[in-house]
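[audit] Reproducing an earlier prediction to check determinism. Same input, same settings, fresh worker. If the tokens differ from the archived copy the diff job will pick it up downstream; this log only records the rerun itself.
[audit] input (103 residues):
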Amino acid sequence: MYARALIRSQFATALVFAIGFVLATVLFVVGLTLIPDEGYAVLGVPVSWLLLAFGVYPLLLTVSALAVRAANRNEARFRSLVAGEGAAEGYTAGGGDEGGEKS
């Protein structure tokens, strides 16, 4: 039961971040198309290239770091639920292949 909830929450997290990234990227591309390439350059580099280098890639890194953080938080909640259930049944975390020992 808990594993299904974890899978659903991980899928929802991934979907939200993917949709957010796609929307941000589409808005960024639309913004780039509004800037003409002729005449706009910094140190000989077109502004569209600079926006790509310092706009999309940092966005990608930020979204991916936030997605990993959210996924880790989901897994930590799952572990706490499973650990709480085991403690309620009289199991403690311990060595062995069974995952715990009955107290």
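[audit] rerun output stored. Observation attached for the diff report: The helical segments are 2-34, 47-88.
[audit] end
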